[in-house]
Predict the 3D structure of the following.
Amino acid sequence: MRSNPLRTLWRNGGAAVNGWLAIPNSFSAETMAHQGWDSLTIDLQHGVVDYAQMVTMLQAISTTPTVPVVRVPWLEPGILMKTLDAGAYGLICPMVNTREDAQKLVAYTHYAPRGTRSFGPVRALLYGGADYPQHANDTIVTFAMIETAQALDNLDQILAVEGLDAIYIGPSDLSLALGCTPTFDDLDPKAAEAVDHILARAQAHGVVAGIHNGTPEAALKRIAKGFQFVTVSSDARLIAAGAQQVMAKMRAGQAPAASGSY
């Protein structure tokens, strides 16, 4: 079976730089994948990507060594299993708030006897290889999103669930849950303290910690703290930022239009 470079990277103490795909298009996904990201996450929870578009984006990512990851809309067995069947090598599941939620996530993403994942890896066989069914349980990575006050209260119970590979912090939702301003990087003190606490507890349990970031500077600081999976921006934000830079230079360099007199 095709190996999962994320697991190798983490075992060696490294950190994965993850990109985010919000544009429902295989060409933009392919273009992003050729830029050297360790992984790319297709976002099915927020935005405009649907399942059929996701499949074409997974195919596009497959033209490179970049690891295909998907954030599913919710903790629902059908979409989790279909996403794995399509060839995702990592799954990020939002709103995991209790130990029971984490147990369900692990069960839905693993074949028996570890879990209850139904068998039908139609595209996963093409991407992972003919022996995919024998090795999928030890190759796929599952992230539980920690983004609510309830999840914070149940953090150690969630992290103790066997088979959970990683957690992923959504700073904006976590900030909202704690009565703070929703943002990625410059968090209010209460939210920043919660992020540090989640990281420390994940490390204590031997679970990889990931987090969403708005800038490379913030992501690098979080890697220095011990995060091993950092998302930096998204395809849509990068397009907008690049276009803004071009237009700012163009407008600044254009001579003011002469005002005519009549």
Remarks:
- The mean pLDDT is 96.
- The CA atoms of residues 102 and 158 lie 6 Å apart.
- The beta strands are 16-21, 39-43, 67-71, 90-93, 141-146, 166-169, 208-213, 229-232.
- The two ends are 77 Å apart (CA to CA).
